[in-house]
Amino acid sequence: MDKKRSELKSLSHPFPLKLQKNIRRKNQFKQNQLQKNQQQQNQKGGIQKLYISSIFKQNYYKFYKDNVQNDDLDFIKILKFRIRVEQLLNSKYGGYIELISSLLSLFSSVLYIISTYLDEISWMNQIDVVVMILFGFEYLLKFYVSQHRIHYLFEIWSMIDLACIIPVFFIFTQSTSDQSFQTFLNITRIFRLLRVVRYIQKNYKAGDSEFKGVYKQIKIKQIYYNYIKKRQIYIIFLTILSVVIITAGTLLSFEAPNRLEQIKRNNNFNPLIQKCSTQRINKATFHEMIYFVVVSISTVGYGDVVPYTELGRVTVMFLIIIIIIIIPQQTNELIRLIGLQSVYARTIYKPNSDVPHILICGHVDVSALRFFCNELFHEDHGNQDKNAIILQTSVPNNEMELFLHNQQFEHNLTYLQGNPSQERDLKRAAATKAKACVILINKYSNDSMNSDNRNILMGLAIKKIVNHITRGESNINLCLQLIKPESKIHYLSALNQKSNDQLIVIEEIKMNLLAKSCFCPGIISLIGNLIQSAGKAEIKEMKKDWIQEYIDGTGHEIYRTTLSTAFSSWTLSAIAAKIYKEFQGILFAIEIDIDGQTIIRLNPGSFIVKNTPESNVYVYIICQDKTVADKVSNYSMSTEDVLEFNQKKITHQKKDKAENQSDQKDDLFQFPKQNMFQDFEMIEKDYVLLNEPVSLMQATEYSTNVKNHIVLCGSHPSIYYFILPLRAKYLKEFQHIVILSDHKPTKIWDSISRFPKIIYIHGSPLVKQDLINANIGQADKAVILGQEMASDSNKNQTLDEMLDAESIFIYKAIQKINNKVQIMIELVYPSNIEFLLPKDVSYGKNFKSELTPLYSAGEVYISTIIDTLTCQTYYNPHILTILQQILTGGSISQEKLSNNNEILNLKQSNLWQISVPEDYQNKTFGELFEYLSQQRDLIALGLYRTSGAVDNIHPYTYTNPPENVNIYINIIYILNFYKVKTYFQRQSICIIIQYTQ
């Protein structure tokens, strides 16, 4: 045992190698566990600095204690004490010791600098002794716990500490006249600043390692790059500052005694000789040395201050060498770090007062951005001089890079990498001067509620930051995409103020469109054409009449414009007839202010329009471009009349705005009704509900014999908004809705349990027998809902397009059983429409999804229509209200009723389809439009060409046809405020109009 102990003491390392191997093998698991705990502590901000060697020592103590005799316990106690001291130095108390030591170093160095301007301080040496005793105690502790003590003695920081400590203990033994010792002592006093530098760098690096631990978890590369870039700038600054101060102090230690000797020597000369001297020598000061060092570093020197001693000149030589070596290295590292940072993270958008811009945030993928930009920069919206700023947290992928360099949008798009919730990045994007902020969403997220919450928080943060930057003087309008309808309440409740923000709820619009298509076929393509601008397409290979008509209809959009005073006291029906005849524009809605309320109505029919500047009358027109809308605004008005009318309108609008702002506090919680959920009383008034809810068990059937019904393939969380329009009271007749899904709608059944004629069949739409059980052979309509994404991770385009595979298979399965049923299908990607087309139809390179028979018939819903609608809300803020009234009927109970008779006289129309009257078959659309508007107070929006109407096999929509177009035997889209009774048949549609006063 004695031999074993002697061998143990003779080793430079305190532990035998065999024992170390056993300990490593035995405690590998504990080491891994410790590293995991350290990572968790790093994320929480508390780094516990424990070295693995301490673990070795502890385990060695336990292991050795079990294998030695009692006479070795003294050695074990000594080892245990060293371990405790090391743990103490590595704990927070060791950090306190280092902090106190650094503060004392700073204090003593600053005190020395001050002493150079004063006479000799008698107590300076006593302070040095006290400080150095504390330094010496800390040094001995670190030396005692060091594993390699010889190596520790030759470390650079250890040598600096030792050089600063040793001279102090010779203060009282050396003579004050010993100038060399005094010079060395002064140098060590200024070198104590390096202890402060070491402490700052050590703690700064600890913060960096902590940040890396978090970075590995959250993977925010941009934040990490910003952090290390700032750290490198800080290191360069700290290095230069340390070199300047220490060099200045060293020069002062060498030059000050020499200057004093020269001054004494000159004082002994004859005064006449002193006057003749061209160079006067002054006492050396610290700030003079600082000046000399800075000038020497930055330039070649002015020569007004020069070192007189040889050691001073040598110091300057070393200074220049250090600067030449160290500073370029640090600067190159900074350049390298800046190079690692994306150029998009450094870009700053400089706004132009003459060029408006909007901000685009959220989940921006290329598909959504393409549709959005096509609408934003379309020539139909007039001046194209506008910019879009895309602000994203990540760098653009390859597909986005190609889109950004598209010649069509390259000069109007600016991509910035940054966080929309950070003030600095919003300033880079000039958010305070943006006309609007568009926040897009991942429409097929598997966690839609989380995506909604993320967009809501982002929108609230942007509004708050913009309001803070402008000090409440301005606010930014949001165009916010949401998935769940209930998320509207969350946003409005959190906003807690009046706002003109546009909330585009994807599932609500989608479900309403699919539901409306069940009794108004083709409405998907009709709405899509109205909200999407289209240029003059040239189709060379497909010279079919139906395509030319359909393309002509796609060139019409909805425009909002003022109404000329020439139409004052006219009925809206008469105005619509006149505008169509003069400009081939269809006026279908009116917006008017009555008693401070903005009322929008679809075709109020015989309502007499009193067009004055106070009434703020606007009309909505379907026409080809904005120039047509401007002609309606200035019809039969001279230039002077237009200017006078507009000036009065502007004055009245400013007055109304001031009154609204004064009443804002009273109306703080009165949000627009169209942006809130309909309450239960409203639903009972406008929709048909059962007195008692039906349980899911009662509604479940193995098979059904119902006919002329709607088969809904799949269960969706927002199915409530699909059924709701199909149970509106104005429909009179209701079709059965058969839900065919292999997942029981347990969670959503409570919301639909009071709707009549709902049947659930457990099965898969992919299985033929299950489709037969749903009686698909005698169904009137089939609706196929899209599939959700598996995750939110960015996948490549090829994998994403496979999301439509199941929907396509269901479509083919239904067609195989019943090829006459009309199928509405939801697709994620427009290109997948090609898989639904017959084999004999081929488009080749000219394939465009919007020109296919299925899309023109309104049988395909594509989510990109939401992005186009989002852009339209920027140009036309009331487009959402118009769309909602078209889809849901816009009943009076949806709005706040007033006792004003003028409001009550404003009738509300619904969108219907009727067959062309026999007297107007084979006549022109212009003749039919005049008849319907002048004699029936109906507004025709377009035609639904049935199969064989021209040279078409499938039906298609024809929006706003020219007045000379023959209508044949077709179906017409009309806005009618009478009650209509509809009967649905499997092969044809027969709609009877019942006039009720």
UniProtKB/TrEMBL annotation:
<keyword id="KW-0406">Ion transport</keyword>
<feature type="domain" description="RCK N-terminal">
    <location>
        <begin position="707"/>
        <end position="843"/>
    </location>
</feature>
<dbReference type="InterPro" id="IPR003929">
    <property type="entry name" value="K_chnl_BK_asu"/>
</dbReference>
<dbReference type="InterPro" id="IPR027359">
    <property type="entry name" value="Volt_channel_dom_sf"/>
</dbReference>
<keyword id="KW-0407">Ion channel</keyword>
<feature type="transmembrane region" description="Helical">
    <location>
        <begin position="152"/>
        <end position="172"/>
    </location>
</feature>
<dbReference type="InterPro" id="IPR005821">
    <property type="entry name" value="Ion_trans_dom"/>
</dbReference>
<keyword id="KW-0472">Membrane</keyword>
<dbReference type="Pfam" id="PF00520">
    <property type="entry name" value="Ion_trans"/>
</dbReference>
<feature type="transmembrane region" description="Helical">
    <location>
        <begin position="233"/>
        <end position="254"/>
    </location>
</feature>
<dbReference type="InterPro" id="IPR036291">
    <property type="entry name" value="NAD(P)-bd_dom_sf"/>
</dbReference>
<dbReference type="Pfam" id="PF22614">
    <property type="entry name" value="Slo-like_RCK"/>
</dbReference>
<dbReference type="GO" id="GO:0005267">
    <property type="term" value="F:potassium channel activity"/>
</dbReference>
<protein>
    <recommendedName>
        <fullName>BK channel</fullName>
    </recommendedName>
</protein>
<keyword id="KW-0812">Transmembrane</keyword>
<dbReference type="InterPro" id="IPR047871">
    <property type="entry name" value="K_chnl_Slo-like"/>
</dbReference>
<keyword id="KW-0633">Potassium transport</keyword>
<feature type="transmembrane region" description="Helical">
    <location>
        <begin position="311"/>
        <end position="328"/>
    </location>
</feature>
<dbReference type="InterPro" id="IPR003148">
    <property type="entry name" value="RCK_N"/>
</dbReference>
<keyword id="KW-0813">Transport</keyword>
<dbReference type="GO" id="GO:0016020">
    <property type="term" value="C:membrane"/>
</dbReference>
<keyword id="KW-0630">Potassium</keyword>
<keyword id="KW-0631">Potassium channel</keyword>
<feature type="transmembrane region" description="Helical">
    <location>
        <begin position="121"/>
        <end position="140"/>
    </location>
</feature>
<feature type="transmembrane region" description="Helical">
    <location>
        <begin position="93"/>
        <end position="115"/>
    </location>
</feature>
<keyword id="KW-1133">Transmembrane helix</keyword>
<dbReference type="Pfam" id="PF03493">
    <property type="entry name" value="BK_channel_a"/>
</dbReference>
